[in-house]
Amino acid sequence: MVRSCGQGIPAWAYVGALFLLIHSVTVGGAALKQEVALDSGATVLNHSMSLVQRMETLLALGNSSDVTLKVQTINTDEVKVIQAHSLVLSLQSDVFEEMLLSRNGSAVFLRETAECAAVFDKFVRYLYCGDISVRLDQAISLHKLASKYHVWDLQQGLTQYMTQHLSSDSPTGHVIGWYNYALQIGDVVLRDSCLQYLSWNLSSVLQSGEWGSISEDLLLSLLQRSDLILQSELELYEALEAWISQNKPVSSTIESALRAVRYGMIPPQHLFRLQKQSPLLQKHYESIRDLLYLAFQFHSASPIQLAKYFDVNCSIFTPRNYLSISWGSPWLLNNPTRDDRSFSFQTQLGPSGHDSSKRVTWNALFSPRWLPLSARSTYTEMGAMQPTRTDAGRPRIIVTPATSSPDFAGVSFQKTVIVMARQQGKVVVRHVYNFHQSTEEAGDFLVDADLQRRVSEYLIDSSLYLHVVIKPLYHSLIVSRK
Questions:
Q1: Rounded to two decimals, what is the model's pTM?
Q2: Is residue 418 pLDDT above 90, yes or no?
Q3: Residue 445: helix, strand or coil by DSSP?
Q4: Rounded CA separation 393/340 (Å)
């Protein structure tokens, strides 16, 4: 016989009424809110938190429970028993609803992996209370449970949690594991977020213990990208050598990875050293001999001369986003909303050894509130300046070469502005803006940033941290090859 709560009210009715009331106040938009819309003079009395606490107590004590969840860990005899209420489970999950309709007796038997079984009580508590505490190592298990039992709000919340905690510190790393999981379940948003984080923060990933756990497919995918942000191509080669030493993949994977290295972006003195000192390069020299030969030709000849005979638009001659001083400069802007700033820096003309001693001087201008001429202050007939509202302006950055030179022939420049930010206590890349030689600025630069707020997610200690990268790209002057 089902026990009663209060003054003769059946237990199931008490649980149902309590749950529906919580749902109406905290989830659905609330009958109370609709009442406010109808009667503007009404006052809302919100006791939803106390109701949630009662639901949590109801679960913890098992009062009026009418269903027992028996969660067995796969391949073990371990069983976790949870006293629950069928009405709550059915309202939150159509999977549970179907199970409960077809059950025999008061028990429902479930089989879960060890990781999912370990957090199952946490998952059930969410069904009662609508909130959950999550650790990095629990995210995938909870996401699996939310997906399996069709608890879509929790699933979406966990995806958002993972995309926002990619930079969090963990003992063994988690981004690569999350990427593999997203790939497995087809979560495009999470997959792309992980891939972007790995690409934009590759230097720190290369130095972490997580690098050794990267899969072959993900490694080869990263090596094809031109938007990788790292110190140099040599850094990437050395990290690849360490990965191969640790994982010992088959020869075909090694050769594919080695052929994705952009040897033309490595200075010739380092290429000579690798040839003599790298056991990996010596062992697989024949598989990449043609690329090394092409790289040495690239460094020894004029790019204009080389372009007559070779396709200089291929990846071996295309730089990535290198942070070394030969390719750009960091730029720290204290109190960026205060006024316009400018600075100058130099880069080498191109990655070719033929051009490495030639320098290009660049001027960069940052304006926190740039306005078109038509919107700027004007003078009246009496000589007084008419004030102009400046809050309509937006941040802008302009990067231009200080001089022009005949050496620029055959070279175009892609400009990349990297914006750093602090997330979970770590400085990471927040955004990347690209624009080319034909344009002086990135049209969408910081378009969504509120630099006026001291706690803006684009600022670190009230300062804007930028890094400007110049990527010289050679192009063919003569289409037909001799």
A1: 0.81
A2: yes
A3: coil
A4: 12
